[in-house]
Write a structure and sequence with these properties.
This protein is of the alpha/beta class. The protein is built from 17 helices and 13 strands.
Length: 412
């Protein structure tokens, strides 16, 4: 799909996913690291018994379909090589603090003179300019300033962090989308494009309907923990089952299907089936209209029913009968999730310690332009000679000078 295109990835870990997605779609991606390796190579958790510079599991996971080279951009020789690569590239991703390449004389204004069709994507915490551009940031602070943490936790306690670090993954996915959008504009105008991706802004979208709550109801949503706020009503949506929890919203259409389940299990009288206009139950409840069964009675029936079954049993019946409910899965649940198994989502991967594992697969399965994994994450400088000699025609001495001393070998 993207096989004609070349991508330069100068991200230090805060954007690896962006270029990986383009690589999965067929683009040639060249990961450009400093001589000591990208900062992401130091991110835990680590693969046991792997070479030191290849032990980071996050680096391994988000740098597939990339060739790896090192360049010493503190040296003029390294910067000159980067300029030559930019001349042949279609996309460039970076994720340092604002103006990181600018400080080396390699900012967008210079690069677009080298390649007037370049799409330059800059991923940062708070955007390339503005009042917070130079603030220090991490996953926790960006998630807080982006908004989703305002909805995490219960009202009488402080907000809680999101489960696992994910800010830069959201930013990476948005950056890949933005890059393709900018490329379409470049094709139409013939002009190079600079894309400013703020991780904070990317996190706003994860709030879903929380973004528009104030405009619709005049106030923001309050943290509710496992409670759902709908208008003036608040009710639980997380219920205990035999092996964990499921999320289930007791709306009218859901109850119209579930009430016969309750009757079938002897939890409520058969008269419940025709004793209420179930499809409109929640609307009449929220509007203060007359209802025949109280919310407490309905929630009690749901609680008693769900408590009898496993997450998977509830999910399977919900899928079969048209009830929207969601199991609260942990990593172990996802690893054996039937849908992912049947779709062939997991891919076998050879780890740097010579062991094999299953890794998350491709984001889409397309018949005419299939995505694929052509290579796993590169070792530091693994493709120095291959890329710089075949693509730029550099000799061994020039490669050594530009890369900080490596011709390109599999590391330790």
């Amino acid at each position: 799909m993207l096989s004609p295109y070349t991508v330069l990835d100068l991200t230090g870990g805060h954007g690896d996913l962006a270029s990986m997605l383009l690589g999965d779609m067929g683009a040639t991606v060249i990961k450009v690291e400093p001589p000591g390796g990208a900062a992401a190579r130091n991110e835990p958790p680590f693969i046991e018994d792997a070479p030191e510079s290849e032990g980071s599991l996050p680096f391994f996971a988000f740098n597939r379909n990339k060739q790896g080279i090192t360049l010493d951009l503190e040296l003029e020789a390294g910067r000159n090589v980067l300029r030559c690569l930019v001349e042949k590239a279609d996309f460039l991703f970076e994720s340092g603090q604002p103006a990181s390449l600018d400080s080396l004389g390699l900012g967008f204004d210079e690069l677009k003179e080298i390649n007037p069709r370049l799409v330059h994507v800059a991923i940062s915490a708070y955007g390339w300019d503005g009042p917070h551009a130079d603030y220090l940031a991490n996953d926790l602070t960006i998630a807080a300033m982006g908004g989703p943490m305002s909805l995490q936790g219960v009202p009488d306690r402080a907000p809680v962090r999101l489960s696992v670090p994910q800010v830069w993954l959201h930013a990476g996915a948005e950056a890949a989308t933005a890059a393709m959008t900018a490329h379409a504009l470049m094709v139409r105008t013939g002009e190079a494009q600079f894309v400013d991706v703020s991780a904070q802004a990317c996190m706003i979208a994860t709030m879903l309907q929380g973004i528009s709550a104030n405009a619709i109801q005049g106030r923001d949503y309050n943290r509710g923990g496992s409670l759902l706020q709908l208008g003036q009503a608040t009710f639980p949506v997380v219920f205990d089952c035999t092996d964990g929890y499921v999320v289930l919203i007791p709306s009218g259409p859901t109850l119209a299907v579930m009430v016969p389940w309750f009757v079938e299990d002897g939890l409520v009288p058969e008269s419940w089936i025709d004793g209420e206009e179930w499809p409109s139950y929640h609307m009449r409840l929220l509007q203060g209209q007359e209802i025949n069964y109280s919310l407490e009675e309905v929630l009690g029936a749901i609680t008693n029913y769900v408590a009898k079954y496993t997450k998977n049993e509830l999910l399977e019946r919900g899928l079969r009968d048209g009830v929207t409910l969601a199991p609260v899965n942990d990593v172990g649940d996802l690893a054996k999730f039937q849908h992912l198994e049947e779709r062939g989502y997991w891919l076998p991967a050879p780890l740097p310690n010579s062991e094999a594992t299953r890794m998350p697969g491709l984001v889409a399965r397309m018949s005419k332009t299939p995505m694929s994994v052509r290579r796993w994450a590169p070792a530091r400088g693994e493709h120095n000679q291959q890329v710089l000699q075949s693509m730029l025609g550099l000799d061994d001495a020039e490669i050594t000078q530009a890369t900080g001393g490596s011709l390109g070998r599999r590391s330790e």
